[in-house]
Each structure stands twice: as structure tokens, then as C-alpha cells.
Amino acid sequence: MKRMKSKPSETSRKKREINDFLVFINLEKSLSPNTVNSYEADLNKFSEFLDARKIDSFVQADEIIISDFLNSQKTFKTSTRARLISALRQFYKYYKAQKPDMKVNPMDFFDSPKSERKLPEVLSVEEVDKILSMPDVKTTLGLRDKAVLETLYACGLRVSELISVKTSDVLFDDEIIRVFGKGSKERIVPISRSSLEWIRIYLMRSRVLLAKAYSEEILFLNFRGRKLSRMAVWDIIQKHTFQAGIEKRVYPHIFRHSFATHLLEGGADLRSIQEMLGHSDISTTQIYTHVDITYLKEIHKQFHPRA
Asked: Choosing from 144, 158, 207, 257, which is the catalytic residue?
């Protein structure tokens, strides 16, 4: 007697459909790994929500069911809700293209909530100088820390970008660094001569002692000769901030905010700052124009004919 093959469960089918979507956004959309992981977690929650209500497929989820799901996610952060909606919107756009018989995209009924635009925290030039002067450059790791902090501030890098910089990405003669940002987008960022000099000294006196056969070309290494982790960079900053006696909350991204703000205060134009930060939309960069309104008022008084 011929044995009947068991029909795959609706849950496993939904799981497969989610995985197909994740492959699509990873390969075709070139979204960052963090975004892909966030979307995966959000869609798995949505799938579990449908399973609990005996809803067999994503097609059966209308705008009312999706609204119930969004309301069930106990969050008061606008950014979290915006990400949930973004994940579902991207998924259903893809899903509908795969299902010609699907008449309506339920996400057409939803608007993204306006995200909260908090003014970024920044360090003063004096505070940055104080932190950067703390590492003991006579030691192997102290010299490494000095080069890390100098590069972080001189180029306004994200931590993920900093820890991925390779030795070949530092072009000393051209005074630039090649950076791979979100979505593996490459950009070129200028770097100061003093920061380049600290990198040069680190390469000659410190990295040669840290490097192992498996270190490859990674620029900044830990004491085991491996790539620095995000947490390691956090620890470096916390250590030297404490030594500097600064009580302000200091974290890796504050150096990026400070980089942009100090450039703006020095007279740099917004488009140039946008390029250096790697922002795809200038509206993201414009938040820095609100940081020092006093400076902008002074510029207005100085140059406007009726000021």
C-alpha cells in the first residue's frame, strides 16, 4: 500500500515564505544585516500571532488583523512601531508580487508614524580633546586606543564601519579612508594628518605585536589579534571618558554626532557633511542644523545686510 506524504503545515509554509523574502531583501535590496535581522524577528512575531488565531496564511490577514497585531506589540516607541510597519509593508509588497491572485495589499491602509526626531547629544571640542589625550600611548593597547579614538572622531564613523576598516583602506598619501557603510555602500572620507600619524605609529609599534596569522587586513585588533567587537569599542570609550573625569553619558555614536556638529559650526556646508557621514537623504543630516542655533544666529547677524 502506497504511503501518503504528509502535507507541510501552514506554519512551516509561512516560515518558508518569510525566508524567501529575507533572501530577496538581502540579495536584491542590499539592506544591512541589522535591518534584515530586525525584519526577520518582526515577521516571525507576526506569523506566531496569526498561528495563535488559527489564520493559515498571510493572504487571510486583512487590515483589521494587522491592526490588532500592531496594537498587541506593547511598545510606546514610535520608532519601533514604524519599523514593524516598514517590515510588514516591504513583506506584503514582495508577497503580493508572488501571488497574482492576491487582490489587495493590506498594508496600503497604513501610514508610517512620524518618527521622533531627538536632537543628538554632542561633546564639546574641549571634551573630545580631553578624552583623546587619555590613552597611554607608551603601551601596546593604549596606542591602539589612541588610534581608535582619533579615527572615530576624525572621520565620523559608525562603530560597525570603524571595526571593519582594513589596513588597505587607509590611503596615507591621499589622506582619506575607504569606508563600507550601511548596505555595503562604499564612501571615501577625509582624515586629518594628525590622526593618520597616530594610525601610522599604531601600525609600526602596536599592531605588529597584536597581529596573528588569522588577523588578515583588519586595522584595529584586540589583544588576541582578532577584529574589535562593538562592545570592545564601547569599553575603550568608557575607560578613557572615566579617566578624563567627564560625567556626561559618552558612547561611540556621540563622536559621530560631535564630528558633524563641529564641522557645521566651523562653516562646512550640509551637502559635504552628508557625503562624509554617508547619509542617503539630506533630511537625516539636517538634524545637526538644530544643535547650535546660536552659531547660526551669529552667522545671520554677520552676513545679512539688515541684521
From this structure: 158
